């Protein structure tokens, strides 16, 4: 079926609105300076910290968000809709609000942060751990949405058959449910990693911007933009390249019209 002509112009304008600003980054930078800018100590330190914390946040999201997705998809209890809404809240909240929430919960005078400091001597804000927590807060819903949607689409027929054959809930999960989750789990983990890698608002609010400790690549871009615009643009292009790679890896083939 062809696309109606009146829809093509708005579609082109929408595409231009997305693509042209990114192309503007390429026009702003001198290609000859790009290798030196990307291999500077500032860029490499921020990239290393970003990748390390984003990977840690992705693992944490898997360990916590994976079971949460199964519970949401396979449970029926009063208030389920409200719980699901709370889980998805970081998707619509401004990240800085999430950072403030984490700060007032886990800060030195927070309801949990105070006891952690007094009883165990742990101080979370403005540490690398704070970066991981901020990234997990904003990125974990992506994994939960991917897995819960996949579970709901798959239905419960195979799990019911497994139960009738005498398999318990844990065996059914390991032998039936988990294999069904592997494809969406892969794409969900990639999207979670990408979102954690690009996190800015919650990180700068809860973890600050300390070079080598909490200054991830997005924070380094913000800092460099005030002193060296070319360096900020170069690091921005690096993030764009990573994001495009993530989209190509995680995008389901079915969405592109392929089996």
Automatic annotation (TrEMBL):
Record's bilayer topology term: Multi-pass membrane protein
Superkingdom, natural source: Bacteria
Residue ranges occupied by any ABC transmembrane type-1 domain in the UniProt entry: 47-250
Localization per record: Cell membrane
InterPro entries documented for this protein: MetI-like, MetI-like_sf, ModB_ABC, NifC_ABC_porter
Keyword entries, A-Z: Cell membrane, Membrane, Molybdenum, Transmembrane, Transmembrane helix, Transport
Signal peptide segment: none
GO molecular function, one term: molybdate ion transmembrane transporter activity
Cellular-component GO terms for this entry: plasma membrane
Transmembrane feature ranges: 51-73, 85-106, 126-145, 231-250
Stored NCBIfam families: Mo_ABC_porter, modB_ABC
Function text: Part of the binding-protein-dependent transport system for molybdenum; probably responsible for the translocation of the substrate across the membrane.
Protein name (Swiss-Prot/TrEMBL): Molybdenum transport system permease
Species, as recorded: Actinopolyspora righensis
Taxon lineage: Bacteria, Bacillati, Actinomycetota, Actinomycetes, Actinopolysporales
């Amino acid at each position: 079926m062809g696309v109606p002509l009146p829809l093509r112009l708005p579609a082109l304008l929408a595409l231009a609105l997305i693509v042209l600003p990114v192309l503007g980054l390429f026009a702003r930078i001198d290609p000859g300076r790009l290798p030196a800018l990307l291999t500077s100590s500032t860029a490499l330190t921020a990239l290393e910290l970003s990748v390390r914390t984003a990977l840690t946040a992705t693992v944490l999201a898997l360990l916590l968000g994976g079971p949460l997705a199964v519970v949401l998809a396979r449970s029926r209890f009063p208030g389920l809709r409200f719980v699901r809404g709370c889980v998805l809240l970081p998707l619509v909240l401004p990240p800085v609000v999430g950072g403030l929430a984490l700060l007032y919960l886990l800060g030195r005078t927070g309801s949990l942060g105070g006891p952690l400091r007094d009883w165990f001597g742990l101080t979370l804000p403005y540490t690398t751990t704070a970066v991981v927590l901020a990234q997990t807060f904003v990125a974990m819903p992506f994994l939960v949405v991917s897995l819960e949607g996949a579970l709901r689409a798959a239905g419960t027929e195979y799990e019911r058959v497994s139960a009738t054959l005498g398999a318990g809930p844990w065996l059914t999960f390991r032998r039936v449910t988990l294999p069904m989750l592997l494809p969406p789990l892969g794409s969900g983990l990639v999207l979670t990693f990408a979102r954690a890698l690009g996190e800015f608002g919650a990180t700068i609010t809860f973890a600050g911007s300390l070079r080598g400790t909490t200054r991830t690549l997005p924070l380094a871009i913000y800092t460099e933009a005030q002193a060296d615009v070319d360096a900020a643009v170069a690091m921005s292009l690096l993030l764009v390249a990573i994001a495009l790679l993530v989209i190509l890896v995680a995008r389901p083939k079915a969405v592109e019209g392929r089996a």
